[in-house]
Write a structure and sequence with these properties.
- Chain A: Keywords: ATP-binding, Ligase, Nucleotide-binding, Protein biosynthesis, Transferase.
- Chain A: Belongs to the GatB/GatE family. GatB subfamily.
- Chain A: It comes from Halovibrio salipaludis.
- Chain A: InterPro entries: Asn/Gln-tRNA_amidoTrfase_suB/E, Asn/Gln-tRNA_Trfase_suB/E_cat, Asn/Gln_amidotransferase, Asn/Gln_tRNA_amidoTrase-B-like, GatB, GatB_C_1, GatB_Yqey_C_2, Gln-tRNA_amidoTrfase_suB_CS.
- The complex is a heterodimer of chains A (484) and B (484).
- Chain A has an eight-stranded mixed sheet. Chain A has a three-stranded antiparallel sheet with strand order 4-3-14, with no helix packed on it.
- Chain A is built from 15 helices and 15 strands.
- Chain A has three domains: 288 residues, no CATH class; 113 residues, no CATH class; 65 residues, Arc Repressor Mutant, subunit A.
- Chain A starts with a strand and ends with a helix.
- Chain B is α/β, with parallel strands linked by helices and 484 residues long.
- Chain B has a domain of 254 residues: Amidase signature (AS) enzymes (Alpha-Beta Complex).
- In chain B, strands 4-6-5-10-11-9-7-8 form an eight-stranded mixed sheet, with helices on both faces.
- In chain B, helix 7 packs antiparallel against helix 15 and helix 9 packs across helix 11.
- In chain B, 61% of the residues are buried.
- Classes of the chains: A alpha+beta (484), B alpha/beta (484).
- Chains A and B meet through loops of A and helix 9 of B.
Chain lengths: 484, 484
């Protein structure tokens, strides 16, 4: 049987407001437990929520970025459940009238195709606190610093058909929120979290299979792995004659498996109803227009601009716009060096390789954009060879100085003095009479070329890679021809 | 001095005939000597009150005295008072001293008023007879064994017993007006949003409104002048100018259009009560008002809608009392569920549990539409009734309660019968309209309340009408036989 996977994602994005969504407490990360919990966050008796306008603005910005309908009137609801890190016994969320309506994003896949993923809606809500189950001798500690941090929950349509699409969608959402500056998007710190709804169905069937929800998957890589693992589990289960249960599951990255957390019978009845402490959020066209006019350039627009302005093709431009920082870095290198293609090649080649190898993100990259631009210029102006440039780049990565200092210190400057090169050539010819004879005796042109190149290699080696290769070619050719 | 009204005491203080310290000492002594009979106070704040009194006297010497400076009064124990026990009549908060002031408490503090203690009340303001308080029932000074009404029964009894000249109170479905009626007082519930709810322990957020219990309308105006106003900490408070409510008290009533809803003179009201109300209204005709019958066709649905909406909101509002951060916590909880179960079972009384269950049920999946949403529809119809009525009349008048004070224990086994105590008061809460009760007659030597309902923000007109009535009648001057 051929199976089709159906995936929908719920992405929770912590918004980068200075203070919480309903209180004046700071949202900064890393404070002592409960140091950033106000009386409102602690749900002390008589305390009331007051909406942070910044969160509304950010939600509207996001709405524009995904071409969504912006609700002129949205309503906060109470989502009721008891948990120790949920101080009020309800979470303030938006169930019935979310601020962002239907929208869509397009994602690029590795086979070069483009897919459009629908966004069902996005709504504002508050984060809960954290329960700490270690270090308290069988009891639990509660840290309410996170309680009340604004979240934008972005709910996709069940439009994704593979784990790769899901990961690409998640990356796109990440790019959008970081471009907008409405979140730091840091998944390792929980600034962006993802629940994956996964089901399978026989190919060609129109109705959906029963889905499971994988909670809190916290990296791009894990999203892909968790979905693939879950899809395999579901297919195996069905093919063995079983049935998928509607349930919530947890992904265990260490064992690469999903585990049941709670089944439908034990699902909470959240008893949503409009929060009477908050007025409906009414926003007018003027407010919306002002936000639209102030929007920064977004990934899709930037990609299009990179293609027209820098002459890149789509495959080159797409990875560069994945993050604002990377795109900015590219533009600095492209402008500094005047060679956008080389800039793109260096960034997606050597730089990406070293970043991967050292697990470093672009914002922590030790090679400054202006240094990379200088390096490209030094290749262009013949100061160093393209080959040695990689050596300089590694030295830049290791913080050994500026490109010129490194070239100088390591004596990598290209030798273009013809008398110097001639001397080298003479030396090589003298030392390798056998190779010369070999070359001269060869009659097949293709084989002769190969033997010539071997001699060029000897000269380059003798120059420690510094000789200008074009000049070496010319002089060697000359010498060999004259010795005919 | 206990025979004086608040305004008379203010004049005496102004004239230097007494000091706040002397008044406060006298008040505290009278509470100590007599409150055993009424149980109207949960907490008496002797030291704190005397300190405030001395500060008030100093303010007066420094020329910084306002109309309320130095006046002793009581807060209903639902208003959070900094570092002073605030129990809400519940075992749950038996030991709770908030680290903050409610906005009302802060405003009265700032005005130099002296809080002598916290008045008894039905637990979490749920009750119409002040028999649900964890701290014992309150006795009406109008007769041993009689209830003072509820939920602001302690505030009402304390004023009727002449222990204090005024008390704060709250009204969710009649909790100011019904006790005012049963204790022969002037009780004012302003427009929803007129007084900040910040720091008032929430019962039903969309209905709760703070107000006053005083001996006459002049005193109510003085209190309201200080208590009213927009508060950025309460999103539902309204940003509207606060007029000087004392300034319009003497306005002429000729031409005032009064409406009597025919639905308020039905079988629920005894002929004796109806006659007292009609005779009070005749006084208004003598004062130049015109009276006509009006209809509020959805009145009969008010109690039913209220007992869905109020418990629904309460079920969520009271979730925060979970034994985790403050309030009652059971001994040796075995796990989180046990902590919740026993802390709440032990901390809440029967009526509170009943309403949490009713509210939880009304919001549950499958019932939400039939109960909560339908009740909200009824609420809009009731609002519309009033809107239509106020196109024809300036004020609506009728009975406050179906009967005068009843005996303790009479209705405790019959919750529905108890809920019908609020049959005439609930509609104005549902509509958010200002309403008051003033002494309008006597039946069986017990006070009868005349209810006055005004249009939104029409408190000045209501107080004016109440004051003019009190100039020509002396129902409000009747002294309870068991008063101190």
């Amino acid at each position: 049987m051929q199976w089709e996977t159906v995936i929908g994602l719920e992405v929770h994005v912590q918004l980068a407001t200075q203070s919480k969504i309903f209180s004046g407490a700071s949202t900064a990360f890393g404070a002592e437990p409960n140091a950033q919990a106000s009386a409102v966050d602690l749900a002390m008796p008589g305390m009331l929520p007051v909406l942070n306008e910044g969160a509304v603005r950010m939600a509207v910005q996001f709405g524009f970025a995904v071409n969504a309908d912006i609700a002129h009137r949205s309503v906060f609801d109470r989502k009721n459940y008891f948990y120790a890190d949920l101080p009020k016994g309800y979470q303030i969320s938006q169930m019935y009238h979310p601020i962002v309506g239907k929208g869509e994003v397009s994602v690029n896949l590795s086979d070069g195709s483009e897919r459009t993923i629908g966004i069902e809606h996005a709504h504002l809500e508050e984060d809960a606190g954290k329960s700490l189950h270690e270090d308290f001798q069988g009891q639990s500690g509660i840290d309410l610093n996170r309680a009340g941090t604004p979240l934008l929950e972005i709910v996709s349509e069940p439009d994704m058909r593979s784990a790769e699409e899901a990961a690409a969608y998640l990356r796109k959402i990440h790019a959008i929120v970081t471009y907008l500056g409405i979140s730091d998007g840091d998944m390792s710190q929980g600034s962006m979290r993802c629940d994956c709804n996964v089901s399978v169905r026989p190919k060609g069937q129109t109705e959906f299979g029963t889905r499971s929800e994988i909670k809190n998957v916290n990296s791009f890589r894990f999203v892909e792995k968790a979905i693939n693992t879950e899809v395999e589990r579901q297919i195996e289960l069905i093919e063995d004659g079983g049935e998928v249960q509607q349930e919530t599951r947890l992904y265990d990255a260490d064992r690469d498996e999903t585990r049941s957390m709670r089944t439908k019978e034990f699902a909470n009845d959240y008893r949503y109803f409009p929060d009477p402490d908050l007025l409906p959020v009414e926003i007018d066209d003027e407010y919306i227009d002002r936000i639209r006019d102030d929007l920064p350039e977004l990934p899709d627009t930037k990609q299009a601009r990179f293609i027209t302005e820098y002459g890149l093709n789509a495959d080159e431009a797409a990875p560069l716009v994945q993050s604002q920082t990377l795109a900015d870095y590219f533009e600095q290198v492209a402008r500094g060096s005047g060679d956008a293609r080389q800039a793109a090649n260096w960034i997606m080649g050597e730089l990406a390789r070293l970043m991967n190898q050292n697990e470093v993100e672009i914002q922590d990259c030790p090679v400054g954009a202006s240094d990379l631009a200088t390096l490209i210029l030094r290749v262009q102006d013949g100061t160093i060879s393209g080959k040695l440039a990689k050596q300089v780049f590694e030295a830049l990565w290791n913080g050994e100085g500026s490109p010129d200092e490194i070239i100088d210190k390591q004596g990598l400057k290209q030798v273009s003095d013809s008398s110097e090169i001639e001397a080298l050539v003479d030396q090589v010819l003298a030392d390798n009479q056998a190779m010369v004879d070999d070359y001269l005796g060869e009659e097949v042109a293709k084989k002769q070329k190969k033997k010539f190149n071997a001699l060029v290699g000897q000269v380059m080696k003798a120059s420690q890679g510094k000789a200008n290769p074009a000049q070496v070619n010319d002089i060697l050719q000359q010498k060999l021809t004259s010795s005919d | 001095m206990h025979t004086s009204t608040l305004s008379e005491l203010a004049r005496a203080l102004e004239a230097g005939e007494t000091t706040s310290e002397a008044l406060t000492r006298e008040t505290l002594e009278r509470i100590r000597a007599h409150d055993g009979r009424y149980n109207s106070f949960i907490t008496v704040a002797e030291e704190r009150a005397l300190e405030q009194a001395r500060a008030a006297d100093k303010a007066r010497t420094d020329g910084r005295a306002g109309p309320l400076t130095g006046i002793p009064f009581a807060h209903k124990d639902i208003f959070c008072t900094e570092d002073l026990l605030t129990t809400c009549g519940s075992r749950m908060l038996e030991n709770f001293a908030p680290p903050y002031n409610s906005t009302v408490a802060q405003k009265l503090d700032d005005a130099g008023a002296v809080c002598v203690g916290k008045a008894n009340m039905d637990e979490f303001a749920m009750g119409s007879s002040n028999e649900t308080s964890y701290f014992g029932p309150v006795t009406n000074p109008w007769g041993d064994g009689l209830v003072p009404g509820g939920s602001s029964g302690g505030s009402a009894a304390a004023v009727a017993a002449r222990l204090v000249p005024a008390a704060t109170a709250t009204d969710t479905g009649g909790s100011i007006r019904q006790p005012a009626a049963l204790c022969g007082l002037t009780g004012l519930k302003p427009t929803y949003g007129r007084i900040s709810r910040y720091g008032i322990i929430a019962f039903a957020s969309s209905l709760d409104q703070a107000g006053t219990l005083t001996r006459d309308a002049r005193d109510a105006a003085l209190m309201l002048n200080t208590m009213a106003g927009f508060d950025p900490k309460d999103s539902t408070s309204l940003d509207r100018e606060v007029p000087d409510y004392s300034a319009s008290l003497e306005n002429d009533l000729s031409g005032l259009r009064i409406g009597l809803p025919k639905e308020y003179f039905s079988d629920e009201l005894s002929p004796a009560m109806a006659e007292q109300v009609r005779s009070a209204v005749r006084e208004y005709e003598k004062l130049g008002a015109t009276v006509k019958e009006i209809t509020l066709p959805h009145s009969h649905l008010a109690v039913a809608a209220y007992y869905v909406i109020a418990p629904a909101e309460a079920s969520a509002n009271l979730s925060r009392f979970d034994g985790v951060r403050y309030g009652h916590r059971c001994d040796n909880p075995q796990d989180l569920n046990d902590l919740y179960l026993r802390s709440r079972s032990e901390g809440f009384g029967e009526e509170v549990k009943r309403r949490i269950l009713v509210g939880t049920y009304a919001l549950s999946a499958g019932f939400f539409d039939a109960y909560y949403l339908k009740a909200q529809k009824v609420r809009r119809l009731i609002q519309q009734d009033f809107t239509n009525a106020f196109n024809e009349v300036d004020l609506i008048m009728g009975p406050t309660s179906p009967s005068p004070a009843f005996a303790q224990g009479d209705k405790t086994d019959d919750p529905i019968n108890m809920y019908l105590e609020d049959v005439f008061t609930i509609a104005s809460n549902l509509a958010g309209l200002p309403a008051m009760s003033i002494p309008g007659g006597m039946v069986n030597n017990l006070p009868v309340g005349l209810q006055i309902i005004g249009n939104y923000f029409d408190e000045a007109r209501m107080l004016n009408a109440a004051h003019r009535f009190q100039q020509v009648t002396d129902w409000h001057r009747q002294v309870a036989p068991n008063s101190a």
